[in-house]
Amino acid sequence: MTAQRIGFLIWPSTKALTLALAEEALRVAQKVHPEVVYDLQFLQAEPPLEGAWRLPGEPWNGRLEGCQKLFLLADEPPLVVNPALGSALKHLVRAGCVIGGLSAGVYPLAQLGLLDGYRAAVHWRWQDDFTERFPKVIATSHLFDWDRDRLTACGGMAVMDLLLAVLARDHGAELAGAVSEELVVERIREGGERQRIPLQNRLGSSHPKLTQAVLLMEANIEEPLTTDEIAQHVCVSRRQLERIFKQYLNRVPSQYYLELRLNKARQMLMQTSKSIIQIGLSCGFSSGPHFSSAYRNFFGATPREDRNQRRSSNPFELSSVPAERG
After folding, report:
1. In the chain, where are the structural domains located?
2. Which SS3 state, helix, strand or coil, does residue 78 take?
3. Residues of the chain with confidence (pLDDT) below 50
């Protein structure tokens, strides 16, 4: 019986969980169904980081060949792809290999143009940055995407979801179900499901009026609604809405709304090249000084100070966000 060779190309930032989820699904498949045979190959894309966990496999030796499927794994976006490695990956794709990116493994694929015109599942934390840097890629907020010969998973448990989908397509739903039972996976999730957990779970409350109010806030960041307008939309009085927020979130609606907008602004500061004024306006602040004052009061630093400090401590953000002029 011919074994299907599946390769894992691993960047130093890869967490043990990301690799284990993918590898274990394939190993359990072989255990529960003897006719399923995989030859798993592990390669290190770059030298391991000092003090990091020991990556499995051997350093990439200049060749990539023989794989029917190859998964790129990373949990922080790699800065660049070694030119020789990039050429080898493109050659492998031309030879008919199905290629995938798990978690931040979508970044090297996008940098090489191998996702242009394809759907790609991108973790919500990187959505703004990825969309700005790679406009030719159709970035989605799905758990995973299988678009022709490209496989992508946003990370975390979605890696297992994607591998179960691979098993189902290659060997049938019965095998995928047997693997999920062996691994005590509650249910096999579809790729098109959204990444973010239900709002009521995030809030720690299932109060319908609270959920409706927060959804309204999240949908109106650039042009914030007043507390009276929100209360009117969810059909309660302003006083009743304030009581609900105080009971479940220990803050008034306006305070929660402001924190929501400031957290969105911080995410944009770290992930995009937009100017501070543009970010402030897109998060509902009427002027630069108003935005800077509110930001400093909440985070303890101005937007410019926070962005500069984060750049100096994170080389990825330093390389991906151009310096702001003026």
Report:
1. 4-182, 199-320
2. coil
3. 315-326
Question: 46-55 — which CB contacts under 8 Å span 24+ positions?
Answer: 46/11, 46/12, 46/78, 46/82, 47/12, 48/12, 49/12, 49/13, 52/12, 53/16, 55/10, 55/12, 55/14
Q: Is 35 helix (H, G, I), strand (E, B) or coil?
A: coil
Residues comprising the chain, all counted: 326
CATH number of 4-182: 3.40.50.880
Q: In sequence order, what are the beta bridge partners of 73?
A: 10, 102
The β-bridge partners of 6 are 40, 69
Which residue blocks in the chain are alpha helix, DSSP H?
16-32, 83-94, 106-111, 127-133, 158-171, 173-182, 199-203, 208-219, 227-233, 238-249, 253-271, 276-282, 288-299, 303-313, 315-320
* C-beta atoms surrounding 77 within 10 Å: 24
pLDDT at 284: 94
How many CB atoms sit inside 10 A of residue 229's CB? 13
CATH classification number, 199-320, choose in 1.10.10.60, 1.20.140.10, 3.40.50.1980, 3.40.50.720: 1.10.10.60
Nearest to 231, CA basis, from 248, 250, 216? 216
Q: How far apart are CA 311 and CA 269, in angstroms?
A: 10
- For 94, the token pair is 């031309």
pLDDT at 152: 96
How many whole angstroms separate alpha carbon 15 and alpha carbon 163?
A: 17
Q: What is the pLDDT of residues 217-237, one digit of tens each?
A: 988 999 999 999 999 999 999
Q: Write the single-letter amino acid at 9.
A: L
Phi, psi of 56 (to 5 degrees): -75, 160
Q: How many CB atoms lie within 10 A of CB 55?
A: 23
